Amino acid sequence: MDRNHDNCLKEAYELQLYNFSTQTVLDLQSIVIDNIQCKTKELEDKLIQNLQTQHSAIKSAISALETESITCAEERLKQLPSVIDEYFAIPCNVLLPEDAPQRKQYSEQDEWLLDCEINNLETRAKRAYLMEAYLRKEIEVQEKLKTLKSEHEEFEQLYLENEIDQVSHKLQCETEEIVKTVKATKNANFLSGTSTKKI
């Protein structure tokens, strides 16, 4: 299980560096053997076509050729993994430049502390976001209140001006009534004084 996991990691690391893994190159073994079998079959068909009387001899010879070729190829291909490892494999202690930050190893305790710090930062970010939203709403409400207060003051001023005009008009009317009454009284007194003198 661990070996498979290590192999998967190794292959992933090679893919990251080369854009192919050494396993891809090792798969050439099956391709080579398939190719040998395919070519010997083509050779057999050509020989049978040209030498129609010797079918069994041709088949026997081709079979022996195929077996010998595959055996020779397999002997050579056995060296392929070590050659590929020598030239392509990335040693376990080597880090690619983009993975340099991974040089420092973290314990489970360190990871737990980092997770806690990340969670705290996420919580603070959410709170800050909510606080900002609340402040925006409060500023909006304050602006509306200012507008309402300003409109209220304008209406109050208009109301007072209207009241003053009405009171002023009323006082003027009452003053005119008093003046008329006083004049009428004076005229009446004057007339009654004149008539007394005549008698």
Write a structural description.
This protein has 199 residues and is mainly alpha-helical. 84% of the residues lie in helices and 0% in strands. The protein is built from six helices and no strands. The protein has helices at 2-18, 22-26, 28-50, 55-77, 80-87, 108-198. Helix 3 (28-50) runs antiparallel to helix 4 (55-77). The longest helix has 91 residues, at 108-198. The N and C termini lie far apart (149 Å). The relative contact order is 0.05. Mean pLDDT is 78; it is low at 195-199.
How would you summarize what this structure contains?
This protein has helices spanning 2-18, 22-26, 28-50, 55-77, 80-87, 108-198.
Radius of gyration: 56 Å
Amino- and carboxy-terminal Cα gap: 149 Å
Characterize the main sheet: none
Q: Which structural class matches the secondary elements? A: mainly alpha
Q: What's the helix count?
A: 6
N-to-C order of helices and strands = HHHHHH
